[in-house]
Specification:
The chain has about 120 residues and is an alpha/beta fold. The protein has helices spanning about 15-20, 45-60, 70-75, 80-85, 105-115; strands spanning about 5-10, 35-40, 65-70, 90-95. The longest helix is centred in the middle third of the chain and has 14 residues, at about 45-60. It is about 35% helix and about 20% strand. It is globular, with a radius of gyration of 14 Å. GO terms for molecular function: hydrolase activity; proton-transporting ATPase activity, rotational mechanism. InterPro entries: ATPase_V1-cplx_f_g_su, ATPase_V1-cplx_fsu_euk, ATPase_V1_fsu_sf.
Length: about 120
């Protein structure tokens, strides 16, 4: 399989379901690359599990091109998202059904503003 060919998702149940229905899901028997998504369930999924998934998708896997993460979930690990500097995988914060998108929190927009001196 070509390197950097998959999307990954760290998202709530509705977002993951929509992405899977769109054909983004991947399941493998290869150790460490079992799936390319994690469903975050409030009260059941810990911050440590979200951090582990983020580390797995960004540092350990070489087949992920873009990581989609719900912005409210990115807020749980904001320090990791904001300190991530690699070009690949690209991290895109997306809204969810219950949490609207706030451009003031988006790590990519913050970096762009710093580049332009805003």
């Amino acid at each position: 399989m070509a390197k950097r060919s998959l999307l990954a998702a760290i998202a709530d149940e509705d977002s993951v379901t929509g992405l899977l229905l769109a054909g983004v899901g991947q399941v493998s028997n290869e150790p460490g690359k079992e799936t390319n998504f994690i469903t975050v369930v409030p009260g059941k999924t810990t911050v440590e599990q979200v951090e582990d998934a983020f580390e797995n998708f960004t540092a350990e896997r070489d087949d992920i091109a873009i990581l989609l993460i719900n912005q409210h979930i990115a807020d749980l690990i904001r320090y990791k998202v904001d300190n991530y500097t690699n070009a690949f995988p690209a991290i895109l914060e997306i809204p969810s059904k219950d949490h609207p998108y706030d451009p003031e929190k988006d790590s990519i927009l913050k970096k762009v503003r710093r580049l332009f001196g805003e």
